[in-house]
């Protein structure tokens, strides 16, 4: 059973989301919150699998809310083992179409997914399950747009070796460079002459080592660590 906390300051929208999710087998809405502060406290108390958050909280305060939910300071560091009980909730952010600007910031903050509010009901419920399983959900076409945003940044901020770059194997670095170039798993598999499932495994290991939740966060890491240089 996937437990969900719904965060929205509009009562009708909260009710609609609760009804939609409750009607799906395997999904259970365990609570609601109307603000970022309440979401952090309720999340810590109820420990849901997924926090479904409206983009009204994805401004400056909302980004910090995502960070506090997805990366609590008391949890083990990325390279330390994390028990099921200690694992923080996954955050899925909903936003109106045209709000792609929020996506980069909330994904960097630790969100596991970004979905437009006009998504079909079955897309939303599927996204909740995907995020709960630890995979990333990003709207079609958004990944490459975010990659271009990172590429166009003129400066990089080298990260300390403890950030995870020094723990990557040579093959994992190759995969990360390809991911940062916007290649799909199939394209990477063809390039390295390995199976797509092996690429997926490498990507999972990379995310774990650098403490990232989603593929786009790994892209940002590749540029910020200096592994890949921004376009001139």
Structure description:
The structure is a single chain. The protein is α/β, with parallel strands linked by helices. The chain folds into 2 domains: 2-140, Rossmann fold (3-Layer(aba) Sandwich), CATH 3.40.50.2300; 147-224, Rossmann fold, CATH 3.40.50.2300. The protein has helices at 11-22, 36-46, 60-70, 100-109, 121-132, 142-151, 170-180, 185-192, 196-210, 215-224; strands at residues 2-7, 27-33, 50-54, 90-95, 113-116, 137-138. It has a 6-stranded parallel beta sheet, with helices on both faces. Strand 4 (90-95), helix 4 and strand 5 form a beta-alpha-beta unit. Helix 9 packs across helix 10 (215-224). The longest helix has 15 residues, at 196-210.
Which features characterize this protein?
232 residues; alpha/beta; Rossmann fold; 2 domains; 10 helices
């Amino acid at each position: 059973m996937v437990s969900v906390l719904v965060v929205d300051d509009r009562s009708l929208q909260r009710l609609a989301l609760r009804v939609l999710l409750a009607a799906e087998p395997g999904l259970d809405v365990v609570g609601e919150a109307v603000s970022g502060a309440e979401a952090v406290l309720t999340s810590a108390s109820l420990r849901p699998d997924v926090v479904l958050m409206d983009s009204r909280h994805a401004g400056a305060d909302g980004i910090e809310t995502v960070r506090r939910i997805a990366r609590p300071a008391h949890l083990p560091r990325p390279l330390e083992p994390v028990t099921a009980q200690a694992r923080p909730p996954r955050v899925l952010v909903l936003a109106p179409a045209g709000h792609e600007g929020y996506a980069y910031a909330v994904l960097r903050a630790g969100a596991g997914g970004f979905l437009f509010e006009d998504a079909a009901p079955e897309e939303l419920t599927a996204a909740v399950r995907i995020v709960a399983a630890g995979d990333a959900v990003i709207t079609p076409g958004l990944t490459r747009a975010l990659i271009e945003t990172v590429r166009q940044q003129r400066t990089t901020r080298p990260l300390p070796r403890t950030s995870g770059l020094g723990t990557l194997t040579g093959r994992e670095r190759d995969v990360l460079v390809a991911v940062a170039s916007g290649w799909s798993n199939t394209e990477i598999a063809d390039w390295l002459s390995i199976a797509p499932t092996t690429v997926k495994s490498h990507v999972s290991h990379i995310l774990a080592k650098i403490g990232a939740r989603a593929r786009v966060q790994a892209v940002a890491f590749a540029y910020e660590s200096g592994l890949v240089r921004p376009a001139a």
